[in-house]
């Protein structure tokens, strides 16, 4: 009996079945879509967003979807293309009206001046972790509202209403976070990978170093020693460390310099206590003490 | 009096009028100044609004009028080279065989004017291949992929196929030359394997490229929440070890007549489930085709004519500890049943010396491997290979061929990035026999480098 349930199509239960790459997109889509939309999240929130395992079960999720929303900016380049290819679903093809690439709607920062893999695993269009600026969440919510309204116009009023509720709530939160972060302006931090670029830019926090010598290249002893020296000189407040890289090198640096390591979530579900978008930013804005 | 009054009125009105006009003029000047100022302001505002759009509009065009470079397909080049140290000399190894299965498994050998060599064929340095891969969408309905193997022996089209993207209903059709999706490993390219050589059972039964054919494929993913995929392939049927449909020998007086083409049919079903962070993928595959296996150009010329079936069962269990570290257990079982006539040929004129009335080969083997991905840089793996069943019956009489044909491998791999891989592998091969029917034990150490540039390859599970 349970096996039979497993075989039932997912689409039986909701009006629209939207597959999304990352949990934060799922949370946003749920807020705007409400009961009309079933969201299927492909990636785990506690994993490196660059390296998601293209499990065969994900092929079925894409195959059964009425649409696909992705982050874009080449964040999914290593795992999503084979899933889309194998799913055989015209609704999730890149040029379909039901396919949404969020990065097309955001002005991305840190676009590399010159593009060569000798500079590490660079993203040609800039840093793709734009969802960590709460102001961008507002833009993305609007983009998702427009998207849902365009593919499901009969419910567009519901999406409009849900968007208004969400954006009113979110604007209040932004004010709260702005106040909270006011005193942190100019604070210096160190990261493993520059995943907080947009968050830092929004609040005037300065990232002075990354533990990885170049994007996507694991730590080297030479670079680690340079980072130790830099920390001793610049005295940053803390290492804001993502949850998916090993903290081994950070611990070594901390031992040498006394710098604090703070684990920070990059997405919904990265840490157990981060269950939604609000708690994600509540957590991030409390990270620098 | 009346006249005077009139005149004075007129004059005064003129006077008044003049002062009025004067005033008006002043007013107008003032107004004009205000308007000008406002206009200035407006223009400024308008410009302020317009400026970014203007610059965007007039930003130098991205490409020249007839430039098509933006339509360039994704290109990547993968180089695979190795250094090999084997306990036997190359000449010696090339003459060894897996009895009644394959002749010359390791090393390179000549077949007429074509030189075949397996990966890591020679002692010393080997350039296994430079693989050029091109990929792009064709139009809203198709994508095209081509993979060319460039080696010292020549240019080889490994794959060149068109895939549908718009069929819907979970259907996907493929046509051209491609690696069959039979089993698990068959479809995978060499650079994604966990070892630098092919499992014994695969290479012995199907040769270096496994089932790599010209034909058509249709796959259907079921609309279930559990992954369930069915696939069928119609293929030309030209495999150096198992399948073929060409006439063998002289057309006028053939050793064995050819069969109609296409002559190879493949079908499979695959399914997968996840239990937390563990993924289990399994499949059952079947291939059936005519066998015109032509070894007439080899040092001991022979030929086989008949029909063959190949059965496969594969199981992969992969557990992820985090984003980079995993434990993966991958196994495949292959069984083949070849039924036909075997010819011993005269090297001088390819005429039949002897022919069996019937030769039936029932052979089966397994490979099973365990890989531990330690982190982003390091991984290590062990593999056990065996052909445990080698029942060959000539006219109903069992030839009692040896059936405990084993291999053992271990490897450690270091990646500087996703694009550069260095691997040290040790192989112990106990499956090969020399011309006197004596079992040989061969130790091989392989240092392999695999380097990729260009488009970022994304691999399926």
Question: How would you portray this structure in words?
Answer:
The N and C termini of chain A lie far apart (53 Å). Chain A is of the alpha/beta class. Residues 4-12 of chain A have low confidence and may be disordered. In chain A, helix 5 runs antiparallel to helix 6 (156-181). Chain A folds into two domains: 10-104 and 119-174, Nitrogenase molybdenum iron protein domain (Rossmann fold, 3-Layer(aba) Sandwich); 184-284, Nitrogenase molybdenum iron protein domain (Rossmann fold, 3-Layer(aba) Sandwich). The longest helix of chain A has 26 residues, at 156-181. Chain A has helices at residues 2-7, 23-33, 56-63, 80-87, 134-151, 156-181, 197-203, 221-234, 248-257, 277-284; strands at 16-20, 37-41, 67-70, 99-101, 188-191, 206-210, 238-241, 260-263. In chain A, the strands form two sheets. Chain A has a four-stranded parallel β-sheet with strand order 2-1-3-4, covered by helices on one side. Chain A has a four-stranded parallel β-sheet with strand order 6-5-7-8, with helices on both faces. In chain A, helix 9 links the parallel strand 7 (238-241) and strand 8. Chain B has a 16-stranded antiparallel β-barrel with strand order 1-6-7-8-9-10-11-12-13-14-15-17-18-20-21-22. Chain B has helices at 2-58, 90-94, 200-206, and strands spanning 74-86, 97-98, 102-103, 108-111, 114-117, 124-139, 142-151, 154-164, 171-179, 212-221, 227-235, 264-275, 278-295, 302-320, 326-345, 352-355, 359-373, 378-394, 397-398, 405-417, 420-433, 439-454. Chain B has 461 residues and is mainly β. In chain B, a hairpin with a 5-residue loop joins strand 14 (302-320) and strand 15 (326-345). Chain B has two domains: 1-59; 74-454, Porin (Beta Barrel). Chain B is built from three helices and 22 strands. Chain B starts with a helix and ends in a 7-residue tail after the last strand. The model of chain B is unreliable at 51-57 (pLDDT under 50). Chains A and B meet through helix 3 and helix 4 of A and strand 10, strand 11 and strand 12 of B.
């Amino acid at each position: 009996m349970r096996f039979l349930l497993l075989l039932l199509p997912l689409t039986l239960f909701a009006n629209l079945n939207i597959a999304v790459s990352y949990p934060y997109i799922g949370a946003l889509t749920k807020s705007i879509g409400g009961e009309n939309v079933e969201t299927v999240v492909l990636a785990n929130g506690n994993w490196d967003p660059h390296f998601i395992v293209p499990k065969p079960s994900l092929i079925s999720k894409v195959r059964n979807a009425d649409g696909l929303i992705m982050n874009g900016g080449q964040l999914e380049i290593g795992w999503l293309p084979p899933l889309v290819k194998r799913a055989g679903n015209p609704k999730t093809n890149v040029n379909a009206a039901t396919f949404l690439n969020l990065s097309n709607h955001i002005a991305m920062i840190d676009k590399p001046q010159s593009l060569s893999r000798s500079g590490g695993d660079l993203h040609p269009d800039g840093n793709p972790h734009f969802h960590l600026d709460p102001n961008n969440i507002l833009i993305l919510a609007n983009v998702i509202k427009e998207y849902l309204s365009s593919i499901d116009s009969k419910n567009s009023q519901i999406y409009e209403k849900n968007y208004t509720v969400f954006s009113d709530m979110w604007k209040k939160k932004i004010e709260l976070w702005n106040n909270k972060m006011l005193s942190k302006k100019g604070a210096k931090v160190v990261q493993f990978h520059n995943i907080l670029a947009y968050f830092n830019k929004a609040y005037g926090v300065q990232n002075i170093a990354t533990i990885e010598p170049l994007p996507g290249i694991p730590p080297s002893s030479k670079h680690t020693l340079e980072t130790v020296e830099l920390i001793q000189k610049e005295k940053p407040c803390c290492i804001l460390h993502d949850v998916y890289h090993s903290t081994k090198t950070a611990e070594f640096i901390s031992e040498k310099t006394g710098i604090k390591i703070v684990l920070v979530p990059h997405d919904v579900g990265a840490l157990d206590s981060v269950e939604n978008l609000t708690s994600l930013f509540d957590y991030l804005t409390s990270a620098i003490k | 009096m009346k006249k005077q009054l009139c005149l004075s009125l007129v004059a005064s009105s003129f006077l008044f009028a003049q002062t009025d006009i004067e005033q008006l003029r002043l007013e107008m000047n003032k107004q004009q100044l205000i308007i000008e100022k406002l206009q200035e302001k407006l223009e400024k505002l308008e410009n302020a609004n317009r400026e970014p759009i203007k610059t965007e509009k007039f930003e130098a065009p991205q490409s020249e009028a007839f430039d098509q470079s933006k339509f360039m397909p994704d290109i990547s080049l993968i180089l695979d080279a190795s250094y090999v140290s084997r306990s036997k000399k190359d000449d010696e190894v090339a003459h060894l065989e897996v009895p009644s299965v394959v002749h010359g498994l390791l090393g390179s050998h000549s077949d007429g004017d074509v030189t075949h060599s397996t990966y890591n064929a020679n002692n010393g340095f080997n350039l296994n291949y430079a693989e050029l891969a091109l990929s792009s969408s064709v139009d809203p309905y198709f994508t095209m992929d081509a993979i060319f193997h460039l080696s010292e022996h020549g240019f080889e089209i490994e794959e060149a196929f068109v895939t549908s993207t718009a069929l819907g209903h979970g259907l996907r059709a493929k046509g051209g030359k491609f690696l069959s999706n039979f089993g698990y490993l068959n479809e995978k390219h060499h650079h994604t394997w966990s070892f630098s050589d092919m499992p014994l059972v695969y290479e012995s039964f199907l040769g270096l490229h496994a089932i790599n054919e010209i034909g058509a494929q249709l796959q259907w993913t079921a609309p279930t929440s559990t992954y369930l995929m069915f696939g069928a392939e119609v293929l030309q049927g030209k495999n150096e070890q198992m399948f073929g449909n060409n006439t063998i020998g002289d057309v006028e007086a053939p050793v064995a007549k050819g069969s109609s083409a296409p002559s190879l049919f493949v079908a499979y079903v695959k399914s997968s489930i996840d239990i937390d962070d563990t993924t289990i993928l399994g499949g059952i595959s079947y291939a059936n085709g005519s066998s015109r296996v032509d070894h007439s150009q080899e040092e001991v010329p022979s030929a086989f004519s008949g029909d063959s079936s190949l059965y496969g069962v594969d199981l992969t269990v992969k557990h992820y500890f985090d984003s980079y570290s995993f434990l993966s257990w991958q196994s495949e079982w292959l069984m083949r049943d070849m039924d036909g006539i075997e010819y011993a040929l005269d090297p001088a004129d390819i005429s039949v010396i002897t022919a069996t009335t019937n030769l039936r080969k029932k052979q089966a083997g397994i490979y099973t491997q365990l890989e531990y991905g330690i982190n982003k840089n390091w991984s290590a793996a062990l593999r056990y290979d065996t052909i445990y069943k080698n029942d060959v019956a000539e006219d109903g009489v069992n030839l009692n061929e040896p059936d405990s044909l084993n291999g053992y491998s271990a490897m450690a791999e270091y990646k500087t990035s996703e694009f550069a891989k260095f691997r040290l592998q040790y192989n112990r091969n106990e499956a090969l026999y020399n011309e006197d029917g004596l079992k040989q034990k061969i130790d091989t150490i392989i240092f392999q480098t695999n380097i990729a540039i260009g488009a970022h390859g994304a691999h399926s599970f």
